[in-house]
Design goal:
19% strand; five-stranded mixed β-sheet; five-stranded parallel β-sheet; alpha/beta
Length: 602
């Protein structure tokens, strides 16, 4: 038996040769097999010296990890490559997961080395200035593997906690609304003028760097190769660069050569009234009856800011004078820090002042629970900006009817107004996106105008041809029944159920997840179509001539089984292949595709 080999999971950075670490270069050189995504293999090709190459396309990550483990167990040194850092949305975790499934143990299994690289948040930040100088997080907007509800919770948490946020995988050809919804969430918590950096293909041939704002970011091109870095409440733009202060102005005067606080004083608790230690000290010395904190305006003899009275845990109001941004004394900055602590991190009125371009008033510097309660009662968003959530819904005049009336179009225009948008889709529906505080009322308006209203996302969509302008309408009742029973139901992944009213099938039902074609008084059923990607294929024909009184029950049973057994984010064609039999219909592998090397190189 051959001795076990080694797995080298390599992050090669942004892609430029100058930004690959020496260990990554050495690991590539010592490897016998290189396994990676096509684009990544192309990027590192100049560094290879005759190694065996295994390259695959998108969505083939599992097969790459499995092949890497298989070859390493045969005794080979195998490099699995990722751009950026292999441990940040890369291949490192998946390789370990495959090994775990096989019962791998470090002491007697194949050796694994993860070689770190420069991740996108770091490479992109370097091109923008210094936007990630304070607490930051990364969030991938891809919901192919993570439920969208989970991503929303993470965006909400990061936005409310004032993190600098780096968004990975913000948009693709099919995932277009995730970045729109994310912007909507962020605008509930952050100033619309919050600096945002968009970096595409950092340190690669087609690099593009844009500095914009949170409210204008969607006016620029954002794709899969773009990393979006969103600043926090203190982030600023200077001379075209984005900079997030670390907090040095709380202790230091940046334009002075001699500091008020001497080196031995700078780490003392009394010099950091915002720290946990200072809070504990104040709690120990707090009077039993509570009180109101008055922040100091003068430094003590030692040069440190000292609070004159302890802050109770449940404090109702704070009197504080905001410090000036330039040349502020440490005591004033300490006072500002105490005020922020008391009101949850941001002085009331400060964000609104940035929005309106006005200086905060003295009144706005006093936090009151009553003001916050009034905003909540008015239906404003939790961040204080009063921005309603973005509501997104699909509307159509009917399952087979493709004709909008003038009244329907007028209503859509009125509802969208200046702040919303309308997008016509290949599914013969219009997607309405509009800021909305009362979605139920809006849906009621649309239904009153005889619209079919459908949620957008991972739901079952029923669509049909126009039945030759309703002249061949024998199958219309089936389409309408499926819409009423299945349309809009939650699905493991967005799923299309398409019906064509005659054997011409000119609306392409046979290409959809579930296709139904009415022909000669019966219904032909097709399962598992895939419309997109290089391995797109028509659905498999599983039955012909199904009677009209049976077809809807059969489709409903297929949907029930998919809902019960499908994995989150698992597309129907993959589910059909995985389980093998659905509602009695057996999956058959599609014929192998024939590769053709076109003369033009495409």
């Amino acid at each position: 038996m051959s001795p076990l080999g080694k797995l080298l999971v390599i992050g090669f950075g942004p892609g430029d040769m100058e930004h690959i670490t020496k260990r990554a270069l050495d690991a590539l050189a010592e490897s016998e097999v290189i396994i990676g995504y096509n684009t990544y293999v192309d990027l590192i090709c100049p560094l290879l010296n005759g190694q065996e190459i295994v390259r695959t396309g998108m969505t083939e990550e599992v097969s790459r990890a499995q092949e890497a483990v298989r070859q390493a167990e045969m005794g080979k040194k195998v490099a699995v490559i990722s751009s950026g850092d292999a441990g940040v949305y890369g291949m490192a975790g998946l390789v370990y997961e495959v090994l775990m499934q096989k019962g791998w143990r470090r002491e007697d299994g194949v050796e694994v080395e993860v070689v770190p690289g420069i991740s996108a948040i770091q490479s992109c930040a370097s091109l923008l200035g210094a936007p990630v100088m304070h607490d930051a997080c990364t969030i991938s907007l891809s919901d192919h593997l993570t439920p969208w509800e989970t991503i929303v919770k993470r965006v909400e948490a990061a936005a409310s906690a004032d993190f600098v946020i780096a968004l990975y995988n913000p948009r693709s050809g099919r995932r277009t609304r995730q970045i729109v919804e994310t912007q909507s969430i962020l605008l509930r918590y952050r100033d619309p003028q919050t600096p945002v950096g968009l970096v595409k293909s950092a340190y690669r041939e087609r690099q593009q760097v844009i500095v914009t704002t949170l409210e204008d970011m969607l006016n620029h091109d954002i794709g899969m190769l773009t990393t979006v870095i969103i600043g926090n409440s203190s982030t600023t733009v200077y001379d075209g660069l984005i900079v997030t202060p670390r907090g040095y102005q709380r202790k230091y005067t940046l334009d002075a050569t001699e500091q008020v606080l001497k080196p031995h004083q700078r780490l003392r608790t009394e010099a950091e009234p915002w720290s946990l230690g200072a809070q504990e000290d104040r709690a120990l010395s707090a009077p039993q009856g509570g009180g109101t904190l008055t922040a100091p305006t003068e430094p003590s003899a030692s040069g440190a800011a000292v609070a004159t009275q302890a802050r109770p845990q449940a404090m109702a109001a704070v009197q504080v004078t905001p410090a000036k941004q330039t040349g502020a004394a440490p005591a004033s900055l300490a006072a500002e820090a105490l005020g922020r602590l008391a009101v949850g991190g941001k002085l009331p009125g400060e964000a609104n002042a940035r929005w309106s371009g006005q200086a905060p008033t003295a009144q706005s510097a006093v936090g009151t629970a009553a003001g916050a309660g009034a905003g909540a009662a008015a239906g404003k968003a939790p961040g204080g900006f009063g921005k309603p959530a973005l509501f997104e819904v699909g509307v159509s005049p009917g399952v087979g009817n493709k004709k909008f009336t003038a009244r329907q179009m007028a209503l859509l225009a009125e509802v969208a107004g200046d702040d919303g948008e309308l997008e016509y889709t290949p599914d013969h529906q219009i997607v309405l996106r509009v800021p909305c505080l009362d979605p139920e009322e809006l849906v009621g308006q649309l239904r009153d105008e005889q619209f079919i209203v459908m949620p957008i996302g991972d739901v079952f969509k029923v669509k049909a041809c126009d039945f030759c302008n309703m002249e061949k309408d024998d199958a219309v009742p089936v389409a309408e029944h499926l819409q009423v029973v299945l349309g809009g139901l939650q699905a493991p992944k967005e799923t299309s159920i398409a019906l064509n009213g005659c054997g011409m099938a000119c609306y392409g039902a046979v290409l959809e997840d579930i296709g139904i074609v009415y022909r000669k008084g019966g219904y032909d059923l097709f399962l598992g179509g895939k419309k997109f990607g290089r391995n797109a294929h028509a659905a498999q024909s599983v039955a012909e001539g199904i009677p009209g009184d049976q077809i809807t029950d059969i489709v409903e049973s297929i949907i029930a089984e998919y809902k019960e057994k499908g994995h989150p984010n698992e597309r129907f064609h993959k589910f059909f292949k995985r389980v093998g039999i659905v509602a009695g219909f057996r999956h058959e592998d599609a014929p192998a595709t024939v590769e053709v090397n076109a003369v033009c190189g495409d």
